[in-house]
Design goal:
The longest helix is centred in the N-terminal third of the chain and has 25 residues, at 77-101. 41% of the residues lie in helices and 21% in strands. The chain contains 16 helices and 20 strands. The protein has helices at 22-39, 44-60, 62-73, 77-101, 135-146, 160-172, 190-195, 208-220, 243-255, 275-287, 307-322, 331-334, 356-359, 375-382, 398-405, 440-445, and strands at residues 2-6, 13-18, 105-107, 113-120, 123-127, 150-154, 180-182, 199-205, 224-228, 233-237, 265-271, 326-328, 346-349, 366-372, 387-388, 390-394, 412-415, 430-431, 434-435, 448-455. Helix 2 runs antiparallel to helix 4 and helix 4 (77-101) packs parallel to helix 5 (135-146). It has a 7-stranded mixed sheet, sandwiched between helices. A 6-stranded mixed sheet has the order 7-6-5-8-9-19, with helices on both faces. Strands 3-4-20 form a 3-stranded antiparallel sheet, with no helix packed on it. Strand 1 and strand 2 (13-18) form a beta hairpin. The radius of gyration is 23 Å and the shape is globular. The chain has 457 residues and is of the alpha/beta class.
Length: 457
Amino acid sequence: MSLLSINPFTLDTIREYPECPTEELLRIVAKTIEAQKKWHSSEIKDRTALLHNLAEHLRQGQQFHSKTISTEMGKPIVEARAEIEKCAQLCEHYAEMAPQYLQGREIESNYTRSFVRYEAMGVFASIMPWNFPYWQVFRAVVPAIMAGNGSILKHASNVTTCALSIESLFQAAGFPINLMRTVPISGQNAALLIAHPGIVGISFTGSNPVGEKIAGLAGTQIKKTVLELGGSDPSLVLKDADLKLAAQKTVQGRMLNAGQSCIASKRILVDHSIYKPFVELVKEEINAIRLGDPLEDSTTMGPLANSTIRDEIQHQVHSSILQGADCWIPDTYADTPMQGCQYPPTLLTEVTPEMSVWKEETFGPVMCITQFENEAEAVALANQTKWGLGSSIYSTDIEHALELGHRLEAGTCSINDFVKSDPRVPFGGVKKSGYGRELSVEGIIEFTNIKTYNVQV
């Protein structure tokens, strides 16, 4: 079987990659296990120096890597550059903070001395999605390696060029050969990697159905898993909100990466008293979006990653319109043929919980707005989902917004901004959005054996 890399804007085949044979996969895992055994005993200061090298190589090759992202999955080049810079900042964060994060702690007990150490576990498999093809990988692999582990990456099949480029970055930065490897394999063969006795745990970001299968397979072997799955994030716009700010942020949070983000603001809940003026401000913001060639700096929205995603979002929109939603598309794109896998920025109003765009995760540039009568109804609507990744609240009363945020079932709550990940703060969800945390101190501790030592003299 081959893995196809297809440009979603031109629909041209970029390259066809042969799948890694089973025998080669097993050899790679064995080599990574051997490399990790040596890396485990390396000094933290040496790991820190290599992370700084990695950040430098990311910035030096920013144009190459950002173009690779834009060509392979359609992200506008401006957003792709920002993704590479964010990866560099993550490397610098863990280079600076990992010694502190991994510092053991003393505990008072009945023993003469008790203390905890955070120790490496072995080799982790990272199974990553295409929507942020560098960032998703770096935020899982960098803390794992910094903690003394090895890493094998099974990336999404449509971004194999990105996956191999990431491996090359680690080698160029001076990390031991085979410590971080990419294996071009299909989803069907990922089970071989997960079940391998030398793999101690799995970090996965992606869809719920695949996450459930991975967790089930890992569970039969009692392997550690960190899962970041789907989301249908609510954004609450209260009656005292700065409406212009709320409109700007909710549109930006929803349309970033053409809406292909787990933490996008997918359900906008607006107080009925400000509903109409808010909708008009949202239309102004959407009107400013510019579809086009993702390699051009003037483009603010590229195509969807493939035709399957485009067709699915089209089906969800049409289904919701039939169920009573009102649809608005900017005049610029209403009658314009879309190139490749493009999809126009779309606004749906009068959305209800019975509609497809509410019940299902919408992975495209479709903004859904619902009005509420009071805050009790707003909280109930916000929590009326199987997911719990992120949430946001727009209000000029910060203390009240924080109190309201306490009632939202989500891993993150942002006040007066859309949800975004940051290397300095933990990230993850609850309910069907998964478990475990990435980033910050929690994101590196996830990849360690929290070992207790008791000493009696």
